[in-house]
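Contributing: when you submit paired examples, paste them exactly as shown. First protein:
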Amino acid sequence: MFEADGVDFEYATCANRFQFVRCPDCEHLYLNPRPRSEDLGTIYPENYYAYAAEGDGLVSRLRRRWEGSKVRAYREWVGDGPRRWLDIGCGNGRFLALLDRFGPADWELEGIDFDSDAAEQCRARGYRTHVGRVEEFDPGDARYDGVIMLQLIEHVEDPAAIARRVYSLLRPGGVFIVETPNVGGLDYRWFKRSWWGHYHFPRHWNLFSTPALARMLSDCGFEIERTDYLISTSAWTISLHNYFLDHGYPQWFTRWFHYRNPVLLAWFVLCDALRARLGGQTSNQRMVARRPR
């Protein structure tokens, strides 16, 4: 069932128009058709935001502080004592460094990424790093107490296959922490026709509502422990950018709607924080799923 269509508003890597469709049975949203695997180098250009080195400006410092508070929550969920963590899609090791900085000294930290250059940068930071797809990853007899997957499951071909593999990598009682867009926020409802920032045409291939994500993880054997709605400033800003760009506004105006614009960031942090505090959903969700003991 047709849900939305649009172009690559952010990077203009191709002229194709893409569409999201909704499964009538499970309500899952997925990109159809999808780019070919040989096109990944095109749709993820060299200036893609995830490849950029993190700066030391105000926005970057506030982001690190906020993520540090997340690490303290991870400690509560995984428990005290030596714990082994795996970061799927670790990139250059930025989040592993935050785990290292804000977590206990006896945590053992590892990452996996399919990009060999990113993995090498992660190793240079001092973290054990594996190269390849997690679906094919075999750590031998070793098992993990915690696996994290932050803003990645929406990019993959088969999220359920990854969830099943993570289940097998965890010790009984271990936790799988997933952050991914949520098709339940106010900005999704406002911009769902074509411009919602988390469509991220054509790089997001799967999008979940909270019930759909919980159902997928439960079907893979997990027990859902909690769901939190997090601030999603970039979704608001990029949605506005896409809307104004698609409606022919001048470039000098649309450039102002950048995900690092501190004025817009401050405003949308306030909006999302207030909405979450009042019990509403935002367009960014975190689900903590546990492998039964």
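Second protein:
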Amino acid sequence: MADRDGIPKHVAIIMDGNGRWAKERGLPRSSGHRQGVKRVKDIIKAAGDLGINTITFFAFSTENWSRPRKEIDMLMRYLDHFLIREVNNMHKQNIRFKVIGGSKPLPVGIQNKIKEAERRTSGNTGLTVVLALNYGSRQEIVEAAKKFARDIVSKELTIQDLDTEGFSRYLYTFGLPDPDLLIRTSGEMRMSNFLLWQLSYAEFYFTKKFWPEFKADDFKRAIDEYKARDRRFGGYRC
């Protein structure tokens, strides 16, 4: 196990490459997504073993609704299964579960399972597992600005009350630490509308491995590289 000194408090992951992994092997896309779920479970365990406080998985973006209906239905079925079985396992392991993103147009049954999973695990004190689901960062920031504007109109706040810390309270991630490290699989090197505000000072780690082949050892390798970096947060060191 890697040394706990310098371990990031919060790791965010863009799980990319399920479809390409399956295509290279002559398998249906569903096989890639199914294998991707297994990797989520492996990485959750690895994060807990390393002493990481929070891990966020980019599971489904607002743009993903443009995918074929058949694939969306399949992803919703996998999500439904995850919310029943895996959240139950996480609860037994003292893991807190949270979802960030818009509720609509998620199926009502999924929305209800999310609320129940969050309620059930809210008192747990171990690792926090976050799913970014039906999530888009630009939309998150716009919604936060609208909420702040409504508070000004209702005279609960004034324009002078707006600062970076106060604005963060209106984001989906309020109460969570900003990510220290972003991991993206499949060789793509972009943020894809993910946590644009929260990743301002995060370290980035890109790997060519597709998500279904990104295992615990790969995750620990990313953490070791993070630990070796010199984070300056915009400052200067000789």
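If you have annotations for the second protein, write them as plain sentences, like these:
The longest strand covers residues 54-61.
The chain has a mean pLDDT of 93.
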